[in-house]
Amino acid sequence: xxxxxxxxxxYRALSGDVLALKNASFSVADGEIMGLAGESGSGKSTLGRxxxxxxxxxxxxxxxxxxxxxxxxxxxxxxxxxYRFKRVSIVPQYAMSALNPTRRIGRMISELLTSRGMxxxxxxxxxxxxxxxxxxxxxxxxxxxxxxxxxxKQRVVTVISTLLNPSLLIADEITSALDVSTQKAVAxxxxxxxxxxxxxxxxxxxxxxxxxxxxxxxxxVMHGGRLVERxxxxxxxxxxxxxxxxxxxxxxxxxxxxxxxxxxxxVSGLNAALEAMSSPDGDRDRPLRExxxxxxxxxxxxx
Amino acid sequence: MTLKLDNVSKTYTLGAFxxxxxxxxxxxxxxxxxxQVVSLIGESGSGKSTVGRxxxRLTSITDGRISLDDEDITTLRGGDLKGYYxxxxxxxxxxxxxxxxxxxxxxxxxxxxxxxxxxxxxxEWTGRLETSLRSVNLxxxxxxxxxPHQLSGGQLQRVLIARALLLDIKILVADxxxxxxxxxxxxxxxxxxxxxxxxxxxxxxxxHDLSLGNYISDTTVILRYGAVVEMGATEKVFGDPRHAYxxxxxxxxxxxxxxxxxxxxxxxxxxxxLPTARGDAPKLTAVEPDHLVxx
Lengths: 303, 295
Known about the structure:
The complex is a heterodimer of chains A (303) and B (295). Chain A has 303 residues and is α/β, with parallel strands linked by helices. Chain A has helices spanning 44-50, 77-80, 95-98, 105-115, 120-133, 150-161, 180-195, 209-215, 233-238, 243-250, 267-277, and strands at 2-11, 18-28, 33-37, 58-67, 70-71, 88-91, 168-172, 201-206, 218-223, 226-232, 288-292, 295-298. In chain A, the strands form two sheets. Chain A has an eight-stranded mixed sheet with strand order 6-7-8-3-9-10-12-11, with helices on both faces. A four-stranded antiparallel sheet of chain A has the order 2-1-4-5, covered by helices on one side. Chain B is an alpha/beta fold and 295 residues long. Mean pLDDT of chain B is 89; it is low at 269-274.
């Protein structure tokens, strides 16, 4: 179980720190796949990255992160080493650049495990079993990354990241660069891994709500560095409360929606949502409040 | 003005000495008429972008004929080619790499002015620029004089469309122009394309996203491995897909309100080995008026 309490993260900039994540508090239960949705600049990737590795430009401002009751030393890069890969793992967006282009995939995995003091040969049967599970032949281990398609590489990286059965997997835009049928394969393999207990829980970061509707149990929506709404997929998709969530859901062109029949609202809809959210006292901190069991919404407007 | 593709094919040679070839586009035929949006939909490697690039003369064609009002455009050179670009322009996927970050956004209009409107006075030119920017729903005061990093991706894409509109274009090739944009801004660019279409522009809309194609297009062309698998009126192709590949694509589209029904991974991505020896495209047969299926 992951518990994030009052977490704030800033980026160092020449003109001073820029707060990118503001007072985030939420938890992810064991067995849960939580989708983290928002547009560019919403802070979703900052939140995801803060849970595994703060890069040099990021500064931990306040708050704590705990995994299975243990507080993670997120502001200490060296102290995080024993947790990374084993307890918290990440599948980055561009699997293409995550794999070493000069090594065959099997050799790369072997070097990775050896560098962490683990025995590749002992883990090999499990690795092969999991590759087959996601519809990849064992021969991919003898291939170079360039010989695989984007979806195949993405699945290889998912298998590697989850090989040590981490408690939490962070998947950052893993389906965004892929074709529809490949997206489906990657999304399915992540759910399969959860079902089989290879990962306890996952945070799936994406701007694409419709892919979350397929694979997630719950959705957390972010805007402007703040948490806006959190609930089950059904609650967020069918009965969103917050004006920003309503806009995100309403501006999605789904198959069946055509310009001639129903014109979707773009930035005008966003502006209307922002208008509804604005309050006389400006950018105020508004924590999520539980309005019905499992459905949390931040206050907006005058409220 | 009708753009006509007739049995167009493109063959690439793989490597310098291997002698292997890849038929990236095979026997593709379709028309684009004024006020019509034709979506080219396909996955990576389907040849959809190559078709767009051949229309724009950025890639040569190996076989077949592309014509604008019965004039073969594949052999145009010099002044004739320049005249063609007056009528046909393209906008591409990544707005951030199209602009030179050193120059202000206005810079993209300069070479259009130099090569097509050298005699136009500055005051009249500025007037035309502003009209063109307003027609893509941009406020000239907020755009001109800015640097690319000061504008959003959606604004940058609309500036490029405005640039194309400065010429009296009849056909716009839009290759994945909204794939990199956020949810709100992408809808605005889509709606803009629909408005331009209503004003009589013919649009070739290249995309991998079926729901976007469905949203604005009149005609849909589904491509796979360089060949047309199914094509016709958008409501027919989406409402009553006949080809197994179209059906599997539609089934894989993530929808908000219902989950994928079938089990399995549904991966139709490219096999590890690319098929290099591709024959002619399968023949298309009409299953109803304005609905063709490969069989």
